[in-house]
Amino acid sequence: MTEQTARQKAGELTDDQVADYLRANPDFFLEQDELLRSLTLPHDSGRAISLVERQVHLFREQRDTLRRELVELVSIARHNDRLFEKSKRLLMQVIEAKTLNDMAAAIDDSIRGDFGLDAATVLLFSDAEVPAQAEGALHIVDRGQAQKRLGALLEGDRAVCGQFRESERQFLFPDRDEPIASVALVPLRHEGLVGVFAVGSCEPGYFDQSMGSLFLSYISDTLSRLLPPMLKRYASGTPVSDLTVETGQG
After folding, report:
1. Beta bridge partners of 184
2. Whose CB has fewer CB within 10 Å in the chain, the N or C terminal residue?
3. Which of 53, 74, 96 is the last residue of a domain?
């Protein structure tokens, strides 16, 4: 026979019954001043404290916890606001670019200067010959070659973050004196896969799978729509003055 069963047979209230009653009657102690003063609870300091003191202590702990959570939320909001402004500036420069190399230069400058990262790559897939050498963050490669080197990294729609294999990092960020250690990559998709957008850091643990990718996806969604028509004109040798994004108006 358990202690709780013995109490019930003796007609005594159990701890759970007392707790349930007090939860159902939170104003019970309003008319029980003497009882309230006589109740004591152990404290971390070793001395006994009254129930009122204990309540005050709990309220202060809750207040401090809520204050810390509020400070953290405000900090996250400010961080996201800064990311949004940086992303907006980058996309405005990309939209205003007249050539692929101008676009790649804007991306490279923004990622390394504004975002403070070590490298950026816009890897576009094209089987056509291009009239000039790609520069900066821009790399134009054969789709089959990219599939062979990057494999499963091209299969999803969302950003993939991590350290990646050395061969994958070298393919994404070639000819670097200081190797990239961690990468965030998102496929560029608009009516099919057109390439990848990747940013890299020389710190091994900078990017990991737990990181959010909202702003990286926001940038890549825009690039996915701007780059294909520009790549077609770039490959066909269209004059720079005519290298604008098609609007679909006839």
Report:
1. 161, 199
2. C
3. 96
